[in-house]
Design goal:
alpha+beta; seven-stranded antiparallel beta sheet; six-stranded antiparallel beta sheet; 14 helices
Length: 475
């Protein structure tokens, strides 16, 4: 056989093999596409059932608006033992089911999850109403999805309305979250559009707080006066009764912590206090006769604990630790970015053991010239400094106070060292900063949450401020 013919045969065999390989790949892709198509078609069936009233065999009349929501007994029964008993038990429902204690938005949210296994919340109130429905009908996993969304999304401007809605529906799951947001963002809460119409209970919870983020107690009084004016209009209270309307609220305002100038300019002219109350405040501020008091006026002279630095921390993360799951977790808090030719990434390191939880920060990066698209060498004698400031607290359930932790290293300032990677010819930064150790015997039952799997979970709120090479890293 000639050499040319042999080469032609080899090329022919190669092309045949290559074609066979491509045919196999195409067949695999075709099978994969068919499988995806089948799955998509299967999911589409339930979306169609959700959006249409096709073959519905039950209906719910929901809320004060008496909104009619139709459904399928089989799907509802498979999702919940409550619905199973409702439609298949000895006392099964045959007529429309009256649901007067839920909002249609929440019931529809629950129905969406039952039919599709997924849900996209439009607001924290949508999530809250869905949470209420899911708890009533014991829908697995859905309440936790609602909680997760609210914890991540709730803003100061919405916190009082959510708090009032929870109070009406006897929901206490978000009390601690609301209190924390109010304490840390008091000014934004006061300036929210909802504040003038907030309930008395909501306003009282603010006034009773031992920690609010305001510069002076007079700010609290000014906003209380603004709310009270709106409340007086709602009540249509006579002018002569105004000073007596809010005795149960005024007693929580710490008038004695105000300056003399603030008292004269803002409190003395106010119609919300009687002449006797103003006299008692003035006498006690001048310390002429401390026995002169008024039942509706607080004699507390200690200012509220006000954390002016709460907004100084640019980065916030919640570290969730399963109590009996001993592991090391890494949570990204600053995704990889370029700062002064340095590609860096910052992660929170959380080490859980039987007796303690250790928290720290790790920094990784390279010297990189983003304009020339190449790695660089550090200059001779060049030093880069990393500054980390942090604040930690263990969150607690219900109305119990969070556990603020005294950080062993509230401010860490460290010179970074570069490691030369010879095979790749570049310099690498890999530094760790241990910050805090939490002894588990310092926690109590109020510091353990229950997750969707029934496990005890510790939630640690971590606040950080990072400065690298003299540049503050923004969130």
């Amino acid at each position: 056989m000639s050499k040319r013919r042999a080469v032609m045969l080899e090329e022919s065999e190669f092309e045949s093999t290559n074609m066979g390989s491509k045919a196999g790949e195409n067949q695999e892709k075709s099978c994969s596409n068919k499988e995806k198509s089948v799955n998509s078609a299967f999911e589409t069936r339930f979306h169609r059932l959700l959006k249409s009233n096709m073959l519905c065999d039950c209906e719910f009349v929901v809320g004060e608006q008496k909104t009619v929501i139709k459904g399928h007994k089989l799907l509802f029964s498979l999702a919940s033992e409550v619905f199973q008993a409702m439609f298949c038990g000895d006392l099964k429902e045959t007529a429309s089911v009256q649901v007067i204690d839920l909002e249609p938005e929440g019931f529809n949210g629950m129905k969406t999850y039952i039919y599709t296994g997924e849900i996209k919340f439009t607001s924290v109130f949508h999530a809250l109403h869905t949470h209420t429905a899911a708890r009533k009908y014991i829908i697995p996993n859905l309440p936790q999805k609602c909680v997760d969304f609210i914890e991540k999304t709730l803003k100061p401007c919405d916190v009082l309305e959510l708090q009032d809605t929870c109070r009406i529906n006897c929901i206490s799951d978000f009390d601690n979250l609301c209190s924390r947001i109010i304490n840390q963002n008091t000014g934004e809460v006061f300036s929210s559009a909802y504040f003038p119409s907030a309930s008395i209970d909501a306003v009282e919870s603010i006034l009773k707080s031992s920690s609010l983020n305001v510069k002076s107690e007079v700010e609290i009084f000014i906003n209380f006066e603004r709310w009270a004016s709106a409340e007086i209009e709602r009540r249509k209270a006579p002018t002569e009764d105004v000073a007596m309307c809010f005795n149960n609220l005024k007693k929580h305002i710490r008038f004695l912590t105000m300056s003399g100038e603030e008292f004269v300019e803002r409190v003395e002219p106010s119609p919300l206090l009687t002449r006797e109350e103003k006299y008692a405040i003035a006498i006690n501020k001048m310390k002429l006769n401390p026995r002169v008091t008024a039942e509706s006026i607080s004699m507390i002279q200690e200012p509220r604990a006000m954390d002016f630095n709460i907004h100084y921390y640019k980065h916030k993360i919640i570290c969730e630790v399963v109590n009996n799951k001993f592991e090391t977790k890494y949570l990204s808090i600053v995704p990889r970015r370029n700062i002064n030719h340095y590609e860096i990434e910052i992660r929170v390191e959380c080490i859980n053991s039987a007796r303690s939880i250790e928290l720290g920060v790790s920094l990784n990066g390279e010297i990189y010239d983003m304009y020339d698209d190449q790695y660089m060498h550090p200059g001779s004698g060049e030093k880069k400094v990393m500054i980390i400031e942090s604040k930690f607290s263990v969150l607690s359930v219900r109305n119990c106070n969070d556990l603020s932790l005294r950080n062993q290293n509230e401010r860490v300032e460290q010179v970074l060292h570069f490691q030369y990677i010879e095979e790749d010819d570049y310099y690498h930064i890999n530094s760790k900063f241990p910050l805090l150790t939490i002894q588990k015997d310092s926690l109590n039952a109020n510091h353990y949450f229950r997750d969707a799997h029934g496990r005890n979970v510790i939630k640690i709120e971590a606040l950080f401020s990072f400065t690298f090479d003299g540049i503050e890293i923004e969130a």
